[in-house]
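This section describes the prediction task in plain terms. A model, or a person checking by hand, is given the sequence of a single protein chain and must write out its three-dimensional structure as a string of tokens. No templates, partner chains or ligands are provided. The sample shown here is typical of the held-out split.
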Amino acid sequence: MSAAVHYILLCTYLASLASAGNNLRGHRAAKEALAEKEDLLAESERFIHRLEQFGMGYEEAVRARMHLLEVALQQSFKLAPKDERGLVDSKAARYILHHFFVQRHQWHVNLLEDQEGIGNTLQGGGNGFNLRDLAHFAATVEQLVHAENIERLQYAFDALGFSREQQRSDEAVEQALEAYFVIFLASNPQRPWTRQRSYPKARRMITHGMPTFNSSIVVAREVANIISETRGPEFKLASLWKFCLEVVEQVAESFGREHKRDCQDLKSQLMKMETPGSGRVPLDAFWGGMFHTTPWYFYESEPYLKQLGALGEEQGLSKTVRITNYLYSSANCASGTQHYQLCCPNECQGILSDIEGRIGAPAATPRRLADAVQQVKSSTVSAPRQLSARLLKRLDEIAARHGNGEVPLHGRLFAQLLHHEYPLECPYPHPQTNSSFSASERIRPGTMAAFASRDVVVDYLEKVSSQAEELSSELPWSEEEEPYHLQIV
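The expected answer:
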């Protein structure tokens, strides 16, 4: 077994422990999660074997990436609490890597996240992790994604009878890119592409039945034109294979940028319905345009919103939708690959990174932390400014709770304070004890249970209109603390 697979196995095992609690339900959830992750591990091993058949220097490519990734991860690793050997535990490792991939690519990496969406932090990790361990894992994931592009392009070349040494022509580029995206859209983790599948049949199905195919081809043509115009003369002689691989990898990155713009549009629409200053949308407003506004994007059912951590139930009959919890949830992730999902970028991570840079330590006194936060702006909060007396008091209370006069930057209570200060950028951090669902209880995205029915919506709108309850902009506060709080939904 390669070193890369050993890292995946370790992360898979640790992630399975995330579901385990001290009760029977927790152990059941752990067993279900571990079974699913073992399937994912087996698929990763099969994938690496296929890469070796293609003649790729897999381990060499991972090692070549590691130095740059060590530099990229160094600041976060430096600020993380460590044991006497200078190692971080599994909670901190998972936290650092999750934030790294989201900021760098907008990837929510499946191997780091609970496949059942429970959003727990890892437990255990007895041996600890150094910076090189984290860089090796990050390089492994990036190489898996890169190799997935190579494998898919190889299948496209095989379907067309092209060779890697073939000279480039405009017609061949067009055919190869079309085949690549046909195979991409005709594949999924449950039914991966194989050479036994009929490419002509898949092409007919995709070109006539999937609107996203045409938009993918348009983007690919634009990227191909840019590469042709901007690369040096030596690249003009590049083989068909080298040129097409460059195109598909840049297209993949452009999908992240396009999805980010879609997320910004969604946020703008939600902000128009917000109860001012609350970061929340009344549920009746969230559903309100369902029957008379086109296009309307907000159809999620009440149980599904609760599962996502986006449903606010603090104000009696009138429920709300937490904008950031909803926006960053899996409900708004675009399908990526078997290794990651493409999700809305979490603006709070940029805010926290700015604060970390100003503090330069994993914890700080309330005064020093308040001074730093007051200097950090967001897309909706200006700086410099003065923190409210209430939040200054909260900082003092958190420091007193920890007994050392300092506030940890990566705990749940400071995340909750950021939600109060930046309600449109930072999600409400649910205590993990309140946010677990077993596999059998969870609603799958895209299923009927994830969408609100007409009867339910009409009934709710009638009840709310008869009550005429005014919503408060005051945000809830709970006292549960958790180190390295990481909620993934």
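For orientation: Residues 1-34, 114-125 have pLDDT under 50 and may be disordered.
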